[in-house]
Amino acid sequence: MSEYRIQGATGEWEVVIGLEVHAQVTSKAKLFSGAATAFGAEPNTQVSLVDAAMPGMLPVPNRECIRQAVRTGMAIDAQINKWSRFDRKNYFYADLPQGYQISQLYHPLVGEGYLDIALDDKDPENTKRIGVERIHVEQDAGKLMHDQHPTMSYVDLNRSGVALMEIVSKPDMRSPAEAGAYVRKLRSILRYVGSCDGNMEEGSMRADVNVSVRKPGDEFGTRTETKNVNSVRFVMQVIEYEANRQVDVIENGGKVDQETRLFDPDTGTTRTMRSKEDAHDYRYFPDPDLLPLELDDAFIAECRDSLPELPDAKRHRYENELGLTAYNAGQLTADVDVYQRYEAILDATSDKTGKSEKDVATQVANWVLSVAPGVKNATEGAIDAHDTTAANAAIIALSAAGTVSGGQAKEIYEIVLKTGREPDEIAETEGLKQNSDTGAIEAVVDEVLANNADKVEEYRGGKDKLFGFFVGQTMKAMKGQGNPAVVNEILKAKLG
Amino acid sequence: MTELTELTVAAIRKGVAGGDFTAVEVAEAFNANVAAASQLNAFIVATPEKAIEAAQAVDAKRAKGEELGKMGGVPIGMKDLFATNGVQTTAASHMLEGFVPQYESTVSQKLWDAGAGMLGKLNLDQFAMGSSNETSYFGNVISPWRRKDGGNADLAPGGSSGGSSSAVSARLCPAATGTDTGGSIRQPAAFTGITGIKPTYGRCSRWGVVAFASSLDQAGPMARDVTDCAIMLEAMAGFDPKDSTSLDMPVPAWEAALNPDMKGKKVGIPREYRMDGMDPEILKSWDDGIAWLKDAGAEVVDISLPHTKFALPAYYIIAPAEASSNLARYDGVRYGLRDLPEGAGLQDMYAATRADGFGPEVKRRIMIGTYVLSAGFYDAYYNQAQKVRALIARDFEQAWSQCDVILAPTCPSAAFALGDKTSDPLSMYLNDVFAVPASLAGLPAMSVPAGLNSEGLPLGLQIIGKAFDEQGVLNAGLAIEQRAGFTAKPEKWW
Q1: What residues of A are in contact with residue B91 (Cβ under 8 Å)?
Q2: Structural domains in chain B plus CATH codes
Q3: What domain range includes position A350?
Q4: What ipTM score was computed for the predicted complex, to two decimals?
Q5: How far apart are CA A79 and CA A132, in angstroms?
Q6: Which residues of A touch B (CB under 8 A)?
Q7: pLDDT digits (tens, 9 = 90+) for A154-193
């Protein structure tokens, strides 16, 4: 990938990017209370006395949330701090019942780690290492609703106290594409580990985007922080916009203000939220309601043992053990849903065909990555529930055995998606099977050649292009069910 | 028969269990005393029906031959810092006036489960901040004690558990809950001639107790004698998974193990507690205490707690810092007071609500706390105070190599008159000088009556013990109690 540069009036500018990603921890209960965490519940139905900060209520850490953050740290090869501590971040807002957020400023749970991002889909080995400064756990705030009453705002505390991981990168990214790749990779890892569902639309993952510009080789410039950006595309837009804006400011003789900005998805621009002068003094101090968090060896061992195979390791295994191309391996392992579907269908296909996984791996990969999605997208009235592992494996098995052609496999899949019928039964009753019976095909070929003696002469006289004509006639006579490979083979033999 | 309201917790429990009188009779007697003592202003809310209800349940159990519980048939007063389900809980503030929790604090629930009944919610300094009960939004509590100078100056019952101390010493209840952050059980107990113990930090759950300073707040009993404190503390203490700072240890049988024999025990006398210009009568009571413990068989040793003089300043940084954050939740959004001036926005609502809902002392501490935590001051104040706190804890650790318990005065003076110190917060804070070191170190500490001064006012002696050694504290307290022969009680004038 070529270096990303902003072309200014005074020359080229380099962009420096750091991301703080807030990821909601997958857990049935909140970080310090037993209240539920489901998305989309009626306002204020998932609020305990603790979340509402009633007088005398106390936080008790939820072990599962800590466990998920530790596992996430392990997945990015980070230092796990056996001793960490919670601090209070004090500020007033109507969505913050305690008047402080319980977070970790001084002693985070997870220290330095990294993740490797691929800069080119075609070449997953071409990676750049992005440092992660730390991961700490903290409480989410509630939500204000401004559209419920003409003059008042309402408060929904369902999210209040939900556990977040704040994953802070080093300022190691240098282009919107790198930042996009970082967010996608991080999301992929979180989903593999199962510590966050990575759903950016529902707000389970959002990023604060730190951007500054400098002349290549110079010291870091002054950065701005754009808050709560909730899609990969928006993250990239923010960087693009901010970098150009900052270059303009500097080149026009101005100075970039260190400030917090907001992104407007409608215009693709950012605007000042608050400047450094109005920055809050959060008065961080250790939360006296909580003891320091101390992890014992057994807990850490369990976290490590429960880690799944991670994307990079899986990708390597697909290439080395299953013989997939680097591109296919990269595509299949990028997201947890895709690899899970792939591995399930691979396993079932291997069973069904009696072949090793390696023998069917590429066929299944092609099916999962390109054939099946193509059919599914083109099929109106496809029902997801019909798209079972068994049905996919059955179709691939039919195809692998030569029982159905590629085209027939697609047709069968379309019927499966609409009706949920069995592939074998569809092939049988819908006549979607190819004929590989050499005797029968020979008879048809003989008939076609006999009926077109003139063309046979022309072909033998050197008009090679007529081969397609004979294939077409044969297939037509066989109502399209002839196995093309067998038909070709017999035609070639008969035509000499 | 002795008047029922003159009986101790132990005597009431025994009498109810033995059928000498019913729990309902006891509750009625105390209800009557509460009703007749409105001048003392010890209760914010009286709940006679709750006391009767609990007593009826105990009597019914007895009729069925069931266990009556550690506090079976004993009506008590509940400091209005403990959340009580369905009963207004105010922390003596305008902010929480009318606030009725839908939950019960762990400590109060344990007491009800042990057979106690509630006579009412006791007045206190607002949010437990004060040493004289003058910061309550519901008016100051008056001590039942008067100087014997013929005057009738109203005296402070101490604070913040002033409603508790006043009510116990005036026989409005045989015992009451208190909370102690920097002396709020011990100082009022000393001022009113009763006994109160702050256990080791973490012994009693803080769940459902309106927070003042989380790392210091600790509940404890206030009663007429050491035995009653042991009984009631057993009922209050215990691990609570809802409080992360709760001690996960079994509750010892303190009452059964009470033993005033001090043979083989060493009592430390900290030389730093002997300060310039100290009231000679306080010094005399201290000497009396030393003599009594020697008489009980103890060996007395001089010890040094070198960082004592830094304890009070450290306390008045750490406690307000935590309070400034703990009290941020009172914002008018979800419960309690809301002042929403016409056309006001969120910030205006905060300002109006908090200006109106908090009294001057609470505001003072919120401001101190906010200041010491702010950027640029944090290291100089809060961090420094935490270091001092660690040094004070270390002082005690080192002292324990020389002694088993420490004896000191509870307060530098006897009860002062209401209004005497309200204009000078610092002199008010100085009242806590002997109490706060044990608070900062999280150690169990108790005040027991030592006698009366020349004005006829009670003086208290403080016993500080090792962490988890409430037994050692109670035993030393009992040894003093048996020798002090303190039987004085305030003459009824209300």
Answers
A1: 55
A2: 4-264+405-484 (3.90.1300.10)
A3: 311-429
A4: 0.96
A5: 10
A6: 49, 52-61, 88, 90, 92-94, 97-100, 153, 155, 281, 283-285, 287-291
A7: 999 999 999 999 999 999 999 999 999 999 999 999 999 9
